[in-house]
User: Which sequence fits this backbone?
């Protein structure tokens, strides 16, 4: 299966701390994307990293991709209570998009 | 722009009934897709379309039909509802396949 596997399943941190989530996969990909979902609402796109890229930044977000290890990580720096949500990696290859089960992040004020 | 809209927000069906979930986008996106999300799980791709008149199956297409007669609309039809189809359904669109996807607010469907 192309589905990504996020680790950890749940993460609880204090406001101001950094949060790191990982995504591993088994097949080749064209790109990998990270999305956020608040309380069962629609997903919101965070960042897209192509298979030939190694790192991308967007505000407080940093994403890395290691295609040799078939893994990606999402780092949220200086977390805020508003970052509390579920985070999903999505693997794209040839018109097919597969999501992982997500990491539930709780940021305590 | 309204973005991606979905109707209805909630729906309860009896086993065997059929219905259509509506999805529309006003961003002139070519790629549209339908997902289902079950409790504690990620999204699973049901069907997708790369443009008007073109549809294809995703990971879990059984029991669902789609059509794409216009760029804007991508309805999902449940042919004969089953309890296993109880889920939250999300529609999404992007400029092209593999791009940043914009999601609708979802339809929560319960089949009894």
Assistant:
């Amino acid at each position: 299966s192309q589905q990504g596997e996020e680790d950890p399943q749940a993460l609880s941190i204090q406001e101001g701390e950094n949060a790191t989530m990982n995504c591993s996969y088994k097949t080749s990909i064209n790109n990998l994307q990270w999305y956020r979902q608040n309380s069962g609402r629609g997903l919101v796109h965070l960042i897209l990293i192509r298979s030939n890229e190694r790192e991308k930044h967007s505000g407080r977000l940093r994403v890395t991709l290691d295609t040799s290890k078939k893994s990606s990580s999402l780092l949220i720096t200086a977390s805020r209570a508003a970052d509390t949500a579920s985070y999903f990696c999505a693997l794209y290859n040839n018109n097919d998009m597969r999501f992982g089960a997500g990491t539930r992040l709780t940021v305590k004020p | 722009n309204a973005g991606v809209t979905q109707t209805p927000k909630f729906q309860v069906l009896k086993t065997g009934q059929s219905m259509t979930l509506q999805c529309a986008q006003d961003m002139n996106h070519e790629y549209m897709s339908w997902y289902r999300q079950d409790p504690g799980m990620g999204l699973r791709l049901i069907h997708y379309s790369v443009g008007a008149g073109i549809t294809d199956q995703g990971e879990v297409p059984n029991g669902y039909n789609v059509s794409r007669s216009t760029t804007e609309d991508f309805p999902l039809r449940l042919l004969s509802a089953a309890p296993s189809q109880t889920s939250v359904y999300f529609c999404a669109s992007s400029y092209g396949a593999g791009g940043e996807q914009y999601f609708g607010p979802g339809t929560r469907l319960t089949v009894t």
